[in-house]
Amino acid sequence: MTAERRQRRLIAVGSGKGGVGKSTLTANLAIALARLGHKVGLVDADIYGPSQPVILGNQGKKPIARDEKLVPVESEFGIPVLSMGHLVEPGRALAWRGPMAGNALTQLIDAHWGDVDTLLVDLPPGTGDVQLTMLQRFKPMGAVLVSTPQDLALIDAARAGQLFDQAEVPVIGLVENMAGYVCPHCGELSDPFGRGGVETAAERLELPFLGRIPLDLAIREGSDRGQPPACGTGALAAPFHDIAAKVDAWIGAQS
Amino acid sequence: MTAERRQRRLIAVGSGKGGVGKSTLTANLAIALARLGHKVGLVDADIYGPSQPVILGNQGKKPIARDEKLVPVESEFGIPVLSMGHLVEPGRALAWRGPMAGNALTQLIDAHWGDVDTLLVDLPPGTGDVQLTMLQRFKPMGAVLVSTPQDLALIDAARAGQLFDQAEVPVIGLVENMAGYVCPHCGELSDPFGRGGVETAAERLELPFLGRIPLDLAIREGSDRGQPPACGTGALAAPFHDIAAKVDAWIGAQS
Fold it and tell me: Which chain A residues are closer than 8 Å to B130 by Cβ?
């Protein structure tokens, strides 16, 4: 292991269940942590369903290889990123069995990350090869778990948490996503996926609750358009910066 | 291959991306197809994140084994089901590499399905071991793809479609989920995940569009509570029965 790698910390962002906003959280958390002074890189470990090139608006760019290792792709937000989405044709399915997916993760993490000190890893759903390869080869310093308030998502988040526990990776905390939708007609709040379930789950599991991100059309549109809300300063950016501040404090407390 | 297996058709329900309502659609489609006279069974192939025991309200039941094969678990809706959720402790993570997940799928499909003539397979997200094992060992008659209207979900649905194409499994059609949310305060409709994107994608891919399921708190609550809306007869049940009628017509046209 080189000195470069010894100094670099990995933070995993996982969910258990897909479609709960893990990739959106990871991209925005990366931008918010960079604003706090970290040199942040992002590994999109969702080998079969990479979203980061779209979210960070750098699809179409290709990483080059140097000395048989990949060089991360820059994004306009100062976050270098590596994703299978940069390596395969858009819309092309990767019909890969697990060992290949595990090897792909290794290529993405064991790359020329240069002066990056904090590498966020956007995990795929499930508790399979990618998760196991990461835990066995690149043990993260900590993990952030994201869930919607729906029971079915919480069950899977608890499963993911258990996997980190078994591997003795501390869970930094839980994030509730898609909580609270403001009707564009009347401005009133309602909760299509429920509300508060993640905070209650965090209490039950004795884990910190890091914050709540609303279900907002603008966040979804920003993600589809390559404009993560954390770049801005408004109400949409605030929850991401609050969560980043808590993760930053946690990192500080470890050293 | 026994006569029993020759006569049984497999219909895969896939999405590419997780969290788009694939399991909810599968359970409700199973109930609706059963009402149309099919003998329907359900395989929950989401090995790492099984949801069917919760959705069909039979968690806690255990399948027995006979002659080294599993006997499916009954649900109150007349749909026998096999899921890893029936075989592992609730909340327990299956830290399995791909080949084990593929073997698990084989155990679930190659079971005592008795007089079931139509086996719906609720696929996990991605295009990995479970999908490949299914396509290689138990080629489905056709596949239903579900997506939300969000670009990021559509990209993954197209990836899943490509995998079925490569395997020469016909795509029966696309379903749009989480389209249209009625504000509980003012009753007006809005679209947190956009609207119409799946129908447009179906046109572009020259695939049938099977229908649209609204984002409705009652569907989410029914899924968390083990009461699938297709059991009822109201407005919430209608889209599932319409989709089932189209799938039924497609099945009829194959023979």
Answer: none
Asked whether residue A6 carries a pLDDT value surpassing 70, the answer given is: no
**B233 compared with A37, residue with greater pLDDT:** A37
pLDDT digits (tens, 9 = 90+) for B149-197: 998 899 999 999 999 999 999 999 999 999 889 999 999 999 999 888 9
Q: Is residue A1 part of a domain?
A: no
Pairing of strands A171-182, A189-190: antiparallel
Q: Is the pLDDT of residue A1 over 50?
A: no
CB B40 within 8 A of CB B116: yes
Q: What's at A52, amino acid-wise?
A: Q
- Give whole-number Cα distances, A231 to A49, A52, A204, in Å: 24, 15, 33
Is residue A2 domain-resident?
no
Is 60 exceeded by the pLDDT of residue B4? no
Q: Do B97 and A99 touch (CB under 8 A)?
A: yes
| Chain A residues inside the 8 Å CB shell of B127 | 48, 93-96
Q: Which of A47, A96, A155, A165 to mutate to test the interface with B (most CBs of B within 10 A)?
A: A155
Would residue A124 count as lying in a domain?
Answer: yes
Domain count, chain B: 1
Which of A48, A105, A147, A200 is best to mutate for the B interface (most B CBs within 10 A)? A48
pLDDT in tens, A8-49: 999 999 998 999 999 999 999 999 999 999 999 999 999 999
Domain interval for residue B216: 7-254
CA distance B67 to chain A (A): 29
Q: Which H helix or E strand runs over A9?
A: strand A9-14
Tens of pLDDT, residues A121-162: 999 999 999 999 999 999 999 999 999 999 889 999 999 999
Question: With an 8 Å Cβ cutoff, are B125 and A129 in contact?
Answer: no
Tokens 């080629």 belong to residue: B139
Report residue B1's pLDDT band, with 50, 70 and 90 as the boundaries: very low
DSSP letter for each residue of B108-160: HHSS--TT--EEEEEPPSSSSHHHHHHHHHS--SEEEEEE-SSHHHHHHHHHH
Give how far Cα B148 sits from Cα of B152, B154, B198, Å.
Answer: 9, 7, 7
Cβ-contact B177, B147 below 8 angstroms: yes
Please count the other Cβ atoms lying within 10 Å of the Cβ belonging to residue B50. Answer: 30
Is A126 contained in some domain?
A: yes
Q: What is the pLDDT of residues B36-62, one digit of tens each?
A: 999 999 999 999 999 999 999 999 999
In 3D space, the residue among A175, A16, A127, A12 whose CA is nearest the CA of residue B19 turns out to be A16
Supply the CATH number for residue B96's domain: 3.40.50.300
**Segment A179-189 mean pLDDT:** 92
CB contact under 8 A, B93 and A20: no
Report the residue of chain A nearest B53, measured CA to CA.
A152
Q: How far is CA A49 from the centre of its chain?
A: 13
